[in-house]
Amino acid sequence: MERVNSASKSTAYREVHFGIKPERSWQEAVVRYLAMKRNLRSFSDVQRICRLLDPYLGPLTLRQIDGDVIWSVIQGEGKKGNKPATINRYLALIRSLLRMARDEWQWIDSFPKIRLLPGEVERDRWLSHAEAACLIAVCPPHLAALVRFALATGCRAREITGLEWNRVDLTRCTAWLNQTKNGTPRGVPLNQDAADVLIEQVGKHPRYCFTYQGRRIAWELTNSAWHTALAKAGIQDFRFHDLSLMASSGGNVL
């Protein structure tokens, strides 16, 4: 115990008098980083990336993470067949954590410059009018309503499932979203297709616009119902989020 106390005092003395910060491990930083990110909607994805990075960074201290280590992550994930978009998510998390360790926690004085990979290919997956109509036809009613609203407005899944009646004005054809990706409320104009979907939902629930069996739809739209509908419609390599990308890019097919 005396040796531990002596070591702690020595470390504290060096930090105060010489400005030498104690060593902090990557794993220690991950624990604190996850605690601070726990309220993110994408928290499970952050956890997953941290686990995937552990073989590269887990044994290291923060000061040991240099350009060569970052390159090993890029090389290792590239050999697994991961695309630049995926590797860039890993790099962005490393950069975010190290910046927080430097600027907010004062655990390190600097970290290596981390540039994202060039050549990331934009996803370009669209449905034809016939494919969209077929998908809607094979969806259960609650899912069909979500698909139609996404195609009409460009809203994301969470924005739609969190929409409340007190944020909808059918007279002015406007909805105000408070479940946006960046957390900033925004208004969305409702065209006739979107208004028709909402009118069909009136009276089903006193608070939420879109419900299933009398309750708000709180699950992610990557569940079995979504995949079952895609299979029935013969549609492959398509995400619910692609519906909003189509609409926001002028690809409304309704």
Features:
three-stranded antiparallel sheet; mainly alpha; single chain; elongated; two-stranded antiparallel ribbon; 254 residues; hpI Integrase, Chain A; DNA polymerase, domain 1
Structural commentary:
The relative contact order is 0.10. A 3-stranded antiparallel sheet has the order 1-2-3, with no helix packed on it. Strands 4-5 form a two-stranded antiparallel ribbon. It has 2 domains: 2-103, DNA polymerase, domain 1 (Orthogonal Bundle), CATH 1.10.150; 129-248, Intergrase catalytic core (hpI Integrase, Chain A). Helices cover 52% and strands 6% of the residues. It is built from 11 helices and 5 strands. It starts with a helix and ends in a 6-residue tail after the last helix. The longest helix has 20 residues, at 84-103. It has helices at residues 2-18, 26-36, 43-57, 67-79, 84-103, 129-138, 141-153, 157-161, 192-201, 224-233, 240-248; strands at residues 168-169, 174-177, 186-189, 211-212, 215-216. With 254 residues, it is mainly alpha-helical. Residues 10-14 have low confidence and may be disordered.
Give a topology summary.
Elements lengths: L1 H17 L7 H11 L6 H15 L9 H13 L4 H20 L25 H10 L2 H13 L3 H5 L6 E2 L4 E4 L8 E4 L2 H10 L9 E2 L2 E2 L7 H10 L6 H9 L6
Antiparallel strand pairs: 1-2, 2-3, 4-5
Quote the beta fraction.
5-15%
* Biggest sheet: strand arrangement: 1-2-3
CATH superfamily of the largest domain: Intergrase catalytic core
Reported for the largest beta sheet, the result is:
3 strands, antiparallel
The tally of structural domains comes to 2
**What is the name of the CATH class of the largest domain?**
Mainly Alpha
Order of helices and strands: HHHHHHHHEEEHEEHH
| CATH topology title of the largest domain | hpI Integrase, Chain A
Low-confidence stretches: 10-14
Helix content: 40-55%
Architecture (CATH level 2) name of the largest domain:
Orthogonal Bundle
The gyration radius over C-alpha positions equals 24 Å
Counting H and I runs of at least 4 residues, what is the number of helices?
11
Helix/strand/pairing class, anyone? mainly alpha
Report mean pLDDT, rounded to a whole number: 84
Number of distinct beta strands = 5
